[in-house]
Amino acid sequence: KKKIAVMTSGGDSPGMNAVVRAVVRMTIHMGCDAFCVYEGYEGLVQGGDFIKKMGWDDVRGFLSEGGTLIGTARCMAFYERPGRLTAAKNMVLNGIDALIICGGDGSLTGADKFRAEWPSLIDELVANGELTAEQVAPYRHLNIVGLVGSIDNDLSGTDATIGCYSALSRICEMVDYIEATASSHSRAFVIEVMGRHCGWLALLAGVATGADFVFIPERPRDHDWREDMKLVVQRHRNMGKRKTIVIVAEGARDKNGNKITPSEIKDLLADTSEGGLALDTRITTLGHVQRGGTAVAYDRMLATLQGVEAVKAVLEATPETETCFIAINENKIVRKPLMQAVKETKEVAVAVDAKDFEKAMSLRDTEFSD
Ligand code: ADP
């Protein structure tokens, strides 16, 4: 009887609870034992009460809850081998032979490292007398499957990460609220949204709300972005628009790699000197409201279908199978090699850091155009 554990790790995202529910129930449905590891890798390193066997009823109501009810944490110990050694010991002591991890690229990188090291961790635990050869005999191979939970939609190889559509919906709702007051006072608003190195949330929020101007890391503005923005905003105002909405991704940069900040955009919109726009301008940083709240229907569906697929992948895996993650491509739930996706994601970040924006653009799955 297989013992499958599920864990949420890294930044939380709406839909993680739906993942936990789907994995627990599918595991039980397939006649296996389901476990939850609380507080991400920290729980794996701590062991004890952090690892709990789950029944069908334990995940009741999880679909409509935001955040992650089994907790998540950043765990420094797991970056180092001694931490992973303790984690391996705790897994064997609980009889767990497969782990399904829902997290971002960091969590999934850690997962792959753990699986690659697993045989040597087991050998070391026997060699140093912490476990006996009989104890570890059934656990020669660790089976790991990744699920991508992130509001940023920043993992290469999947069309959507679990949580990104919930965050996008939340942003649109907030922009609608802001628009009502902006329009009343004929004001301009600069709205900063999350996304780390990725502009997906900002770009799609711009499309969905009809924003006047959008700044994203993948399309760095050249030195005359100030003039470009002024012209667009002025044109929209001349057409009778009583509000101005500029959306800026937290990772937005110019072509020299310098961050474009909401306050410099505000200064430009509010500029009262000759030829300036002289708009009454406010800044709103949406912050963590983008992460919180319940998951939209799409994320609940994605999490559920992918959770089910993850359990199937675990049950079908052999020791030779490459570590996979569950993606969605053109509306189909598919298994894909994990490390290739993580590598491609890193390449984009490295290219952006090196100011090689053309390369970063070509590596991104999404096509951006002006
Ligand atoms: P995310 O999964 O959202 O990208 P992090 O990058 O903070 O978030 O990763 C979450 C946790 O995963 C870390 O606190 C650490 O415990 C583990 N982790 C991340 N990267 C690695 C790595 N390279 N090796 C081992 N563990 C890692």
What would you say about this model in short?
This protein is α/β, with parallel strands linked by helices and 370 residues long. 43% of the residues lie in helices and 16% in strands.
Walk me through this protein's architecture.
The active site is at residue 152. With 370 residues, the protein is of the alpha/beta class. The chain has twelve helices and eleven strands. The protein has helices at residues 16-29, 40-46, 81-93, 105-127, 133-136, 164-185, 200-209, 225-238, 262-270, 297-316, 338-353, 357-363, and strands at residues 3-8, 33-37, 51-54, 98-103, 143-148, 188-193, 213-215, 244-249, 281-285, 324-329, 332-337. Helix 8 (225-238) links the parallel strand 7 (213-215) and strand 8. Helix 1 crosses helix 10 (297-316) and helix 3 (81-93) crosses helix 4 (105-127). The structure holds adenosine-5'-diphosphate.
